[in-house]
């Protein structure tokens, strides 16, 4: 299966070209966020350039921000694939959008109305704006698609899980095209405070732009982010028949559960290793074929160390490794889809973005080749993108040249 379209709304840019340029330049996006004024952690990687009403018009008011992001990304992806307005059978086009938290902003806003004014003040569109399936449902509605429209929720692995399930739908012949990705808009005092109570967030308030630092010796947690990414997937023969040149192929997918802890990864990385092995086997490639790993690496002390050991044990010290979260922060359920999109662009263009803010590896980071400082020009015939989520969800995709 091949990737023929990409759409993105990210802190690094609200379209694919802008986000890719900033990511290749290694430009961190973390900055103070007025939505978190007074919080212990008051900075995020925000999709602040996104103008919902400019992009979506009056329809924006009926959507939670996570759905706004998803619809905007889906529209760009479809246009990029040369499929706007068809040529497709709407009944054969599926939509799979992952999300970690769904319409959190809407739930919180309406809970405040209920508390302050009473039930009659609650917006009658609260449920259809906020429930977790609405990004997928609204993308299907917006584009007139009648195939399966499914929501996926595997925490911060959701976007990657969506890609894997899309691959299954195409292989099974249930769809001819699938729009797959992830979306989240969880920048709220509640979620920031909750993550901070878990000691998961960076507290580098004096220098927010340097706060998201995957694998680095001075990493102290992740930076909360928001956005969406959607990829158009179809069979290679169909893309050729349409005259479309793909970015990359989606070769394989693997998933597993740690069954270890609600929030902490298995310190031995056993579940992640199983997902990686399954992905490589599904793709029919050997570890020695892999030229790039786009790591999940969020900047948390424990998670980055476990993943670095996994990468070293699977690929050795010479496979290139990057984490684009140094630029974008952690987009939660959208992260895996955005990182798969960046990986596809690396394959297509033969360049690997640097890991922003990485200066020196922590003593607990295994010997791996972390791309940093500047973009690296190198052929990328096969690449892996990792995603791991609370609850022990592990999802890995393998991409290659189309």
UniProtKB/TrEMBL annotation:
Pfam families: ketoacyl-synt, Ketoacyl-synt_C. SUPFAM superfamilies: Thiolase-like. Residues 1-401 form the Ketosynthase family 3 (KS3) domain. Keywords: Acyltransferase, Transferase. InterPro entries: Beta-ketoacyl_synthase, Ketoacyl_synth_AS, Ketoacyl_synth_C, Ketoacyl_synth_N, PKS_Beta-ketoAc_synthase_dom, Thiolase-like. SMART domains: PKS_KS. It comes from the Bacteria. PROSITE patterns: KS3_1 (PS00606), KS3_2 (PS52004). Belongs to the thiolase-like superfamily. Beta-ketoacyl-ACP synthases family. This is Beta-ketoacyl-[acyl-carrier-protein] synthase family protein. It comes from Streptomyces similanensis.
